[in-house]
Design brief:
The protein is 44% helix and 10% strand. It contains 6 helices and 4 strands. A two-stranded antiparallel ribbon has the order 1-2. α3 crosses α4 and α3 crosses α5.
Length: 199
């Protein structure tokens, strides 16, 4: 009998397929027992070599930051690998209980549903600045989706009774169902609506 390789010896990700063709090349689902790259991929386009679950964990380490403002510090999410990965594994267990599906598959679906396709940039022309709609690069689409998922989870649990793991599980499930209550899906629609009006 062929042994299936699972991440953390829990979740089999070999059969998961990225349906969004634009994201296929940048969502890494390479099965490893422990997903830890030790920062070896800090090169151009290196993020595409990092497993998408590790990218979520790295994003979780700065859960409170908004833009350039490093104002909110969330106590649970620190720079500790084990602490952050435990939060994610706990969230994945909750997702599995809620949906009965492989949580990594639900997570990939959530990324596809919350990755914006176009956004607005400012163009300066003859001293006047005006917004211009542009397509979003695939790597940035995944980064934005992860950022909004983590921000949504942080907002659901900050100063509330929920833990960050519960907030993350809720956010992932709602984003995978394209539920409007998910912050990531809301942000995607907002960004795309701005781009539409700036065409």
């Amino acid at each position: 009998m062929e042994q299936k390789f699972k991440i953390f010896d829990k979740y089999d990700i070999s059969g998961i397929e990225v349906k969004d063709l634009g994201l296929k090349a940048v969502v890494n689902l390479e099965p490893k027992l422990v997903i830890k790259s030790h920062g070896r991929n800090v090169v151009k386009f290196g993020q595409a070599k990092i497993n998408v679950v590790e990218r979520l964990m790295n994003r979780l380490a700065t859960a409170g930051h908004r833009g350039k403002k490093h104002k909110i510090q969330k106590g649970r999410a620190t720079g500790k690998y084990t602490k952050n990965m435990n939060i994610i594994l706990e969230a994945f267990e909750m997702v599995e209980k809620k949906t009965g599906k492989n949580p990594v598959e639900v997570f990939v679906k959530a990324i596809e549903n919350s990755a914006p396709r176009d956004e607005v940039t400012m163009i300066e022309y003859g001293g006047a600045r005006y917004p211009q709609a542009v397509d979003v690069a695939p790597l940035r689409r995944v980064n934005l989706a992860l950022k909004h998922l983590v921000h949504g989870a942080g907002d659901k649990s900050f100063n509330k009774k929920k833990t960050i793991a519960q907030g993350l599980a809720e956010e992932i499930v709602m984003a995978s169902e394209e539920n409007g209550e998910s912050m990531a899906v809301r942000k995607r629609k907002e960004i795309e609506a701005q781009a539409d009006s700036a065409r």
